Amino acid sequence: MIYFIKFVYSFVLPPGLFILLLLALAVWLWRWRREGKAASVLLGITLLFYLSSTNLVGDALIAGLEDDYPQPSAVQGDVIVVLGGGAASGTPDVDGTGNMYGSAANRLITAVRLHEQTGLPILFSGGQVFADSGNEGDIARRQLLGMGIPDSSILIENRSLNTEQNAQNTAALLREKGLSRPVLVTSGFHMTRAVLQFEKAGVAVQPYPTDYLVSRPMRMYTGRLSPSAGAVSSTGLALKEYLGILVTRLK
């Protein structure tokens, strides 16, 4: 019963509420206005919106990206390169202000754990993307020091605004420091595009994906058919990556 209630409840709040309103409008156009063609088009748009709002579709799209590169059993490199993924400015932290968003924080934690296993230095790449966001590189340095990573093991690139700049600026810093075998740490959904950008920058990496969003194995249940804002976010995130991969390959 609890799962049935959750399913019904998902249509009370957006995006489920908007799906019901669009469906009602399509029925109205067909039944009372006799606008069969317009009703059919609207019904198709509503169905597409509904599917993109479900975890069934969002998780499938994300999993397709996460499966591109398996996590290696052993690290083989001379530096751990971590890509940023967004940060907030002015927010309270244990030892200062400014925090990484979820994906960026997960990537940073993975890098710290790999450093503890291997002793390799950590190179973090990421700048201040928007006027009201945090400078990821500066926040990363503070948090890495707070987690016990010595300053001598930290390299920061704090100017990049996107993945392409991450690759280009990191490549320049690697050459400057005499490093040539980077272990690339980023989210599983982001790894394919990141590897392509580093290849274009002339850098071969060992991919070490982390921050997985989809459980394995994927299972089918009622909740996967419920519309949710989280599923919309997953679908949009995946489509952004697929589009970015296509554009990168065409350049």
Q: What features would you describe in this structure?
A:
Helix content is 51%, strand content 14%. It contains nine helices and seven strands, in the order ααααβββαβαβαβαβα. Helix 2 (16-31) packs antiparallel against helix 3 (36-52). This is YdcF family protein. Residues 78-244 form the DUF218 domain. Pfam families: DUF218. It comes from Paenibacillus terreus.
Task: Write a brief caption for the model.
It comes from Paenibacillus terreus. With 251 residues, this protein is an alpha/beta fold.
Q: How would a crystallographer describe the biggest sheet?
A: 5 strands, parallel
Order of helices and strands: HHHHEEEHEHEHEHEH
Unreliable stretches (pLDDT < 50, length at least 5) are none
Quaternary structure: single chain
Number of strands: 7
Organism: Paenibacillus terreus
Protein name: YdcF family protein
Pfam family, one: DUF218
Transmembrane segments: 12-30
Keywords:
single chain, 251 residues, alpha/beta, five-stranded parallel sheet, two-stranded antiparallel sheet, 9 helices, 7 strands, Cell_Envelope_Assoc, transmembrane helix, membrane, Rossmann-like_a/b/a_fold, YdcF family protein
List the helices and strands and how they pair.
Blueprint: H1 2-9, H2 16-31, H3 36-52, H4 55-66, E1 79-83, E2 87-93, E3 96-100, H5 102-118, E4 122-125, H6 136-146, E5 154-157, H7 163-177, E6 182-187, H8 191-200, E7 206-210, H9 229-250
Parallel strand pairs: 1-4, 1-6, 4-5, 6-7
Antiparallel strand pairs: 2-3
Helix pairs in contact: 2-3, 4-9, 7-8, 8-9
Pfam families: DUF218 (PF02698)
Transmembrane segments: 12-30
Domain DUF218: 78-244
